[in-house]
Automatic annotation (TrEMBL):
<feature type="binding site">
    <location>
        <position position="301"/>
    </location>
    <ligand>
        <name>L-histidine</name>
    </ligand>
</feature>
<dbReference type="Pfam" id="PF13393">
    <property type="entry name" value="tRNA-synt_His"/>
</dbReference>
<dbReference type="Pfam" id="PF03129">
    <property type="entry name" value="HGTP_anticodon"/>
</dbReference>
<dbReference type="GO" id="GO:0004821">
    <property type="term" value="F:histidine-tRNA ligase activity"/>
</dbReference>
<dbReference type="InterPro" id="IPR041715">
    <property type="entry name" value="HisRS-like_core"/>
</dbReference>
<keyword id="KW-0963">Cytoplasm</keyword>
<dbReference type="GO" id="GO:0005524">
    <property type="term" value="F:ATP binding"/>
</dbReference>
<dbReference type="InterPro" id="IPR006195">
    <property type="entry name" value="aa-tRNA-synth_II"/>
</dbReference>
<keyword id="KW-0547">Nucleotide-binding</keyword>
<dbReference type="InterPro" id="IPR045864">
    <property type="entry name" value="aa-tRNA-synth_II/BPL/LPL"/>
</dbReference>
<feature type="binding site">
    <location>
        <position position="120"/>
    </location>
    <ligand>
        <name>L-histidine</name>
    </ligand>
</feature>
<feature type="domain" description="Aminoacyl-transfer RNA synthetases class-II family profile">
    <location>
        <begin position="1"/>
        <end position="380"/>
    </location>
</feature>
<keyword id="KW-0067">ATP-binding</keyword>
<comment type="similarity">
    <text>Belongs to the class-II aminoacyl-tRNA synthetase family.</text>
</comment>
<dbReference type="GO" id="GO:0005737">
    <property type="term" value="C:cytoplasm"/>
</dbReference>
<dbReference type="InterPro" id="IPR036621">
    <property type="entry name" value="Anticodon-bd_dom_sf"/>
</dbReference>
<dbReference type="InterPro" id="IPR015807">
    <property type="entry name" value="His-tRNA-ligase"/>
</dbReference>
Amino acid sequence: MRRSMSETFRPIARTPRGFADKRAADLRAERRIIEAIAEVYERCGFERLDTGAFEYADALGKFLPDSDRPNEGVFALQDDDEQWMALRYDLTAPLARFSAQHWETLPKPFRRYAVGPVWRNEKPGPGRFREFIQCDADTVGSARPEADAEMIAMMSQGLEAIGLQPGQAVVKINNRKLLNGLLSAAGVEDAGQRLAVLRAVDKLDRLGPDGVRHLLGEGRKDESGAFTVGARISASAAERVLAFVTAGQPDRAGTLSSIAEAIGGSAEGDEGLEELAKIDAALTSLGVGADRASFDPSIVRGLEYYTGAVFEAELLLDTTDERGQPMRFGSVGGGGRYDDLVARFTGERTPATGFSFGVSRLIAALRAAGRDSAEKARGPVVVIAFDQAAMAHYFAAAGELRAAGIAAEVYLGTSGMKAQMKYADRRLSPAAVIMGGDEIAAGQVTIKDLDLGRELAAGVTDNQAWRAERPGQVTVSRDELVSVVRRIVDAG
């Protein structure tokens, strides 16, 4: 039995949570950030690599959120050979697989950067999406701390390349070996306790020293009454941890000195200090000061992922949510040393270091700070269509403009002149080309400067002398079309 029209199923047009539709302005902002950061990577000698969207779930290993349930944390499907594949969770796991697969033929160290979407089956939130763009750089095959320093310098240069000045963003640096050494010296060897300590330290910026002190001890009850069990280390060990995580100083050398006093000396801690000292020296040589990259002992990152230096980029601009309320956006990128990832495939430890910018998150952070990088995308010049019989003239004009590198389109709707002009304005077109029967017969064309019209409508008062010499509409010889439109486009 056929359904009647009233019974026809009509789905609700809606965007899945955690995903976003992007129009030209968003894509332009995204592209501009990617191109600016990619230029930094290439200038530092990194080659671009692109891997497929899917990886076998077992290639993600312990970094898969829940390996017993392959679709938890990632978007996964089972292939016809019954192997589980997952949309890539990040760009680093594919790099580890690629490096292990092609290690014999790769230049070593292998320096690569990658740009592309990644997918996470997680609860979305402000600035957190289920699909987003990452922009990574990694060096595989070098254990030198200078390789970490180069990553940090590129993070700083990338932030500068997208328009952030010193003081508006900073890269914070730590080394996992420091806290590990401190805990060993304090007699904290239990793996569960160490993990709880790291989780407590990671909450320092939100809870402050007193809140972390409770989490290092028996635990903490929050405002809702929920109780979080603490690490249950001794009071003396907890004070040593707090002294360490609050040892940051305005300059990197001062922080190193304070850390050395706090950790009390241990083989692993001393190794971490030496690595930070080498990173400091390399950053100084690269001209990266403490206002752009600082040592911060409270930075933890990836609890089971990183093996040495860790770093993250933080936006220092004030940010607000959709209701205009102040909010803390957190990091917009981060990374560190991960010497165990390739070994999952080869059985041999392969040193590696890298970082990632979350491009979608970075754009959201800039918008929350009032630095809206999604500027209005300028549309094409619109050739007004009056008469079906004159379409050849309209397309010839559009073709000339396109050949000269000027975006142009012929209006292909069915509306009249007024609606077409409104269409051109809505497209943010710089100009409209008008060719009625009289203009065509006389070998002329009328060009309306829509950019100027928008300025006047907005009440812009600067540069009046220039505008006085810039007519809002002009009729010129047909062979002047490109030159006149070019002046309007270049002036916009």
